[in-house]
Specification:
Blueprint lengths: L2 H11 L15 E6 L6 H5 L6 E6 L6 H14 L3 E7 L9 H12 L13 H13 L10 E6 L6 E5 L7
Parallel strand pairs: 1-2, 1-3, 3-4
Antiparallel strand pairs: 4-5
Length: 168
C-alpha cells in the first residue's frame, strides 16, 4: 500500500473545507471522461469541488454503467447537461476488442460479458458516446450533451459534438 497517500490524506483533512456542500453539483453538470491519469478534469475546466459529477472509465466511452450513473445524476441529483471527454493517445486505441476478449477467454475460460469499447477513430467514438446518451430512454435531459477531444499534449479541448439547434 502507498502509505504516503494515507499520510497525505491525514494532513489534508486537517484543513478540510468542504463539509456541508450539497449533494447535487452546483453547475448541474455531469462529465463522462476517460480514467487516464493525465486528465485533471477540475483544473482543465476551471471547476471547483462540488460543481460537477465526474464519471470515469477506460476510454470515457458510454457504457451501461455510465448510463446508470447519468440516470441517477440527472433524475435524483439535478444535473441537466453532460460533457463527454475522450482524449488523444488513449490506450483504448491500442488494441481490438476481439483480441482482448480472446486473451481473457484463453486465460480464464470465459469471455467478458461487458463492452470493451476499443476504438480507432477518436472523433467517431466521442460522437457515438454522445448519441448513446441522446437516444437512451432513461436519461431525461438530452438537449445539452456535448462531446470533446482533450489533447494530452496541449491541454486543449476540441468540440466534436454539440446539441442540435431547436427546429424553428
Amino acid at each position: 500500500m502507498n502509505q504516503d497517500l494515507i499520510e497525505h490524506n491525514a494532513k489534508w483533512a486537517e484543513s478540510f473545507k468542504w463539509a456541508g456542500l450539497p449533494t447535487p453539483p452546483a453547475r448541474k453538470l455531469a462529465i463522462v471522461v476517460c480514467m487516464d491519469s493525465r486528465i485533471d478534469v477540475f483544473d482543465a475546466l476551471g471547476l471547483g469541488v462540488g460543481e460537477a459529477h465526474v464519471i470515469r472509465n477506460a476510454g470515457g466511452i458510454v457504457t451501461d454503467d455510465m448510463i446508470r450513473s447519468l440516470t441517477i445524476s440527472q433524475r435524483f441529483l439535478g444535473t441537466e447537461s453532460v460533457f463527454v471527454i475522450q482524449h488523444t493517445r488513449c490506450g483504448m486505441q491500442t488494441f481490438k476488442d476481439e483480441d482482448l476478449a480472446s486473451t481473457l477467454e484463453a486465460e480464464t475460460g470465459q469471455r467478458p460479458t461487458w463492452l470493451i469499447g476499443a476504438f480507432t477513430d477518436l472523433d467517431a467514438s466521442v460522437r457515438d458516446s454522445v448519441e448513446k446518451i441522446r437516444t437512451n430512454p432513461f436519461v431525461p435531459h438530452k438537449d445539452q450533451v456535448f462531446g470533446f477531444v482533450y489533447d494530452v499534449e496541449t491541454g486543449l479541448l476540441r468540440e466534436v459534438a454539440r446539441p442540435e439547434a431547436p427546429a424553428a
